[in-house]
Amino acid sequence: MQRLYDFLRRHPTWVDGFWAVLLFGLSVVSTAVEQQAGQKSRGTGSEAIIIPVVLLLCLVIALRRRVPERMLLLAIGVGLIQLALDVATTLADFAFLVITYTVAATGARWASRLALGVGLCAAPLAQLRWPEQEADVLGNIALTVFMAVPFALAWVLGDSVRTRRAYYGQLEERATRLEKEREAQAKVAVAAERARIARELHDVVAHNVSVMVVQADGAAYVLDSAPDQAKKALETISSTGRQALAEMRRLLGVLRTGEHQESGEYVPQPDVEQIDDLIQQCRTSGLPVDFKVEGTPRPLPSGVELTAYRIVQEALTNTRKHGGPKAGASVRLVYFDDGLGLLVEDDGKGAPHELYEDGGADGSGHGLIGMRERVGMVGGTLDAGPRPGGGFRISALLPLKPAH
After folding, report:
1. What is the pLDDT of residues 156-203, one digit of tens each?
2. Which domain holds residue 278?
3. Which residue, 208, 201, 269, 218, is CA-closest to 239?
4. Which has the least CB within 10 A, 98, 118, 222, 285?
């Protein structure tokens, strides 16, 4: 049964054709019965004229949903023929109500208005053409109004169906648009999360591996002449590797659960207080760093603290990578009333021009680009470039209020 219903929904013309055939048969039978009984109907006319008129009106029923505007014009033409040739009315004239409803529901706007106007004029014209001889003037007027009501109701019903379909169409379009927007937002969120994880991995790996490489080179150099220094360098490599492993476990935990876990094997995110440990690690690896804090230290938003830590970490990593063997660095943290200022400078030979002229693209594409993205996420500003006297400078201002 459901298959039959679906088939009929996909082929509405077949349904209309069935009703057209049924209407044609009823019209022919009723006309024949009236003629045999000698009953008078509205209008006259022989079967040679009535049958074609009935056929055309049934055709209007059959094709009303395929070409509603054309069927409306055909119905109007048939009606004019009936008025002009005084053709008797039959059951097939019900097609006028059906086509009025159809064009009001699915046809063009001009066709809908035309159907309403013609429908309201049909009753007065029919009453003028075939007046009731036994009724007075008021009776004819009342009958005219009564005959016009079905046309008005058919048009109102069709127009309400059009409005409801348009409303449902808007709801479906809105739901589709919202679904696409949600998918786009989800893709953007996934891309942003991947970029954030990539920045975190870059900062963790680049810094800790560079420290381990420097310490390993130093240990190999003094292994025979100064075993104690080599042992100390190996211990630094071990502690640095453990720290990198802990941070990478935290990042993998974020990828698995989507949340930062501060218990178990995952460690908290770095903050401003851990910058001092980062400085000590750099000093141990052979990079002299001057570290000063100005203003009154106080708790900051976690996003600001992580951004500050990563900027200092990346800046010192770049100094170690590009500054040369005799480079030194200085780090300044300034607590303002409405934000945190950072200034990291070194006196080395400076970074390659592409690091800052082309937006910060280094070998992996996560150097200064990552810094700028981090600062942008907290609504801050970043300035990076060579110092006038040599070396490199990175300055950032991180506001306490997030950007809107």
Report:
1. 999 999 999 999 999 999 998 998 998 888 788 777 766 766 676 666
2. 271-404
3. 208
4. 222
- To the question of pTM greater than 0.70 for the whole model, the response is no
Q: Which residues contact 398 (CB under 8 A, 6 or more apart)?
A: 304, 307, 308, 339, 340, 341, 342, 375, 378, 380
Strand extents, DSSP E, 253-335: 289-294, 329-335
- Residue matched to tokens 């589709």: 176
Domain boundary among the residues 130, 161, 191 is at 130
- Sheet harboring 329-335: ordered strands across? 289-294, 329-335, 339-346, 392-399, 381-386
217-227 per-position pLDDT tens digit: 777 777 777 87
The CATH number of whichever domain residue 325 belongs to comes to 3.30.565.10
The total of structural domains in the chain comes to 2
CA 29 to chain centre: 60
Would residue 203 count as lying in a domain? no
Tell me what the mean pLDDT of segment 336-350 comes to.
87
Per-residue tokens: 75 = 């119905």
